[in-house]
Amino acid sequence: MKPVVLTCGEPAGIGPEIAARAWARLADRVPMLWLGDPRHLPADCVHEVIDDPAQATDVSARALPVLAHPFAGDATPGTPDPRNAQGVIDVIARAVDLVQQGAASAICTAPIHKKALKDGADFAYPGHTEYLAALAGDVDVVMMLASDALRVVPATIHIALAEVPHALTPALLRRTIESTHAGLRDQFGVAAPRIAIAGLNPHAGEGGAMGTEELDWIGGLITQMQAEGYALTGPLPADTMFHAAARARYDAAIAMYHDQALIPIKTLDFDRGVNVTLGLPFVRTSPDHGTAFDIAGRGIANPSSMTHAIRLAHDMATR
């Protein structure tokens, strides 16, 4: 099995330390390599610089394999250095090259800080997901947040709430449903995916009393896709579709906007949630948290989400 390539993420955040601690947990189970500047790893990280990704599988059992990518500056925990912004961006692109060339099996990305990248390198993308989609050839992608408790997909992602009703179209929702269905089937091994779809408005519009999108087109699209063979339910009130009994009735939920999706999974399983990008021509996962500048460098960051993200990337690539 080819290694999972771990991108360094923002060097001033917790990315380097949770990568080191995740490797310590998974060393004998998942081959991996870390892509970044070795100077940014914790001082106690057992690592070994390699020249070729093919060396990673043998090295991974005894040390974190590091494919060195020199950065312009050092890493000061909690304080991003603008000189490192371009390095962070370039590492992501290099990881994509490795997996597309077949040198790695999947990508697991450490958290980035969008403002630091914009300030230091004029980063033009709202986040990781959009940049990866561009690197893959401007493909249509969806962001899934996955854990043992819940899989959820927001139909719209990093936009202002006021823009959601305009951005949410029948074409977008159809693509989101199709991508989620394909991802569940092909990458999660769910033979006949069941997908629940939230309404846009409170109480799914309550018959038009609180909004009409559900009546105008969301319900009709769901009915049409049910006739095409998709196992869909909805539109459902978002406030009643995430308790335990409701979650047992579907394999993934599609929400209409960012917080409608992320609040339930971060409440249910904050430490083990994983960000999965569906629709890419390669496997990509990421821990479901940010750079945590406030605790960076203190050795107290929880590596559970990173550990689960690496394991899921390996499992999806194997599948």
TrEMBL record:
Binding site for a divalent metal cation: H158, H203, H258
Cofactor(s) listed: Zn(2+); Mg(2+); Co(2+)
Cofactor note as given: Binds 1 divalent metal cation per subunit. Can use ions such as Zn(2+), Mg(2+) or Co(2+).
Transmembrane domains' residue ranges: none
Location of this chain's protein in the cell: Cytoplasm
Enzyme class: oxidoreductase
One Pfam family here: PdxA
Family per similarity comment: Belongs to the PdxA family.
Stored NCBIfam families: pdxA (TIGR00557), PRK05312.1 (NF003699)
Assembly and interaction partners: Homodimer.
Any further remark recorded for this protein: The active site is located at the dimer interface.
Annotated protein name in UniProt: 4-hydroxythreonine-4-phosphate dehydrogenase
Species of provenance: Sulfitobacter albidus
Lineage: Bacteria, Pseudomonadati, Pseudomonadota, Alphaproteobacteria, Rhodobacterales
